[in-house]
Amino acid sequence: MKALVLAGGSGTRLRPITHTSAKQLVPVANKPVLFYGLEAIAAAGITEIGIVVGDTQAEIEAAVGDGSDLGLQVTYLRQQAPLGLAHAVLIAREYLGEDDFVMYLGDNFIVGGIGDVVGRFTSDRPDAQIMLTQVGDPRQFGVAELDGDGRVVGLEEKPAEPKSDLALVGVYLFTPLIHRAVAELKPSWRGELEITDAIQWLIERGHRVESSVISGYWKDTGNVTDMLEVNRLVLESLETRLEGRVDDVSELIGRVVVEPGAVVERSRIVGPVIIGAGARIVDSYVGPFTSIAADCVVDGSEIEYSIVLPRSSISGVSRIEASLIGHDVEVTPAPNTPRAHRLVLGDHSKVQISS
User: Fold this and answer.
1) First to last CA, the chain
2) Long-range interactions of 261-264: CB distance < 8 A, separation 24+
3) Which of 7, 61, 170, 271 could staple 106 via S-S, CB 3.0–4.6 A?
4) Torsion angle of alpha carbons 14, 28, 140, 200, nearest 10°?
5) Distance (Å, rounded) from C-alpha 355 to C-alpha 338?
6) What is the DSSP letter of 65?
């Protein structure tokens, strides 16, 4: 069995971060979200992985390499444009051959891994198997309709009037029969080849499509709110580890990780918090559910429930909350006079100003 991991796409909901960085590499607890999926696949006993990449191919390749560090054999498959999940299957046809495969969306996060669902698929071997979860607003997802016996009888992508509250989680398992379905598809109203349409093709022709409703945690980390929530969840399971230097006057409360080369001086840190390698926390407060990446500086500032990417600095800022701060960012206080806001913002930025 192989795996097909989707790591293309433009990540529009995470702009401006994704103008310069792949959305699958935004870190959760200082580890790219993509790596949680790769580790889950490896833990399920699958070692051959094709990663579908787009414009951020070089960045993805630099981070993952050949996969050997994770016990994987990685092949990169270039998708010229993000034309839908089924299109990713289409371009991977030669790589997948006649093997069964699991398709995993690289920006999805699932607690508990996929070992159980892979084991069930391998033993029962339906033509397709999908994972579902209940959501508050199904209109944002692919939605499944089940009959009274729990069998999948219909699927629809982002419906205006959903027939259930069961959304497709970004993990799918297929036999080679899916290639026949994909080859028959026409673009949807979104201009994409939809995997939901391919699975519907199987259903309409009497092929067996099984589903399981997961009770564990799942998130599509496509926006800042969800990224922060997943970061919170991962940090909840953090175990204290102090490998950097913490001076005698600093106070560490709860589960805190200080990675090698990091320095904490005259500061108060309330976990769960992770401080990345080479970072410096000086005269500051770092509150719960915060990830400070490698080589960052927090000086004379307060921050909590936030993610800070590598090499950024926050100096003299009274309070930062619920924020995602990109690579190589400088955050400083504005001058007291004149009373004005001085901004340099990228496309699609969102700014909240208290005036």
Assistant:
1) 57
2) none
3) 7
4) 120
5) 13
6) T
- Alpha carbons within 13 angstroms on the beta-carbon side of residue 11 total 29
Location of structure tokens 């009497």: 206
pLDDT tens-digit map of 141-153: 788 888 877 678 8
Angle between helices 33-43 and 57-64 (to 10 degrees): 50
CB 291 within 8 A of CB 274: yes
Angstrom distance (rounded) from CA 277 to CA 144: 44
For residue range 96-114, list pLDDT tens digits in order. 999 999 999 888 877 778 8
| Chain centroid offset of residue 48 CA | 21
- DSSP assigned state of 63: H
Residue 161: both structure tokens together: 């009037």
- Cα separation, 161 vs 166, in Å, equals 13
Residue 126 has which token pair? 């339906």
State the residue for tokens 């955050």: 331
Closest CA to 299 of 321, 275, 315, 323: 315
The C-alpha atoms of residue 222 and residue 128 are separated, in whole angstroms, by 25
- 109, 166 in Cβ contact below 8 A? no
> How many whole angstroms separate alpha carbon 91 and alpha carbon 84?
11
Question: And the tokens for 152?
Answer: 């999948």
Low-confidence ranges of the chain (pLDDT < 50): none
Q: Which residue has the tokens 């598809």?
A: 185
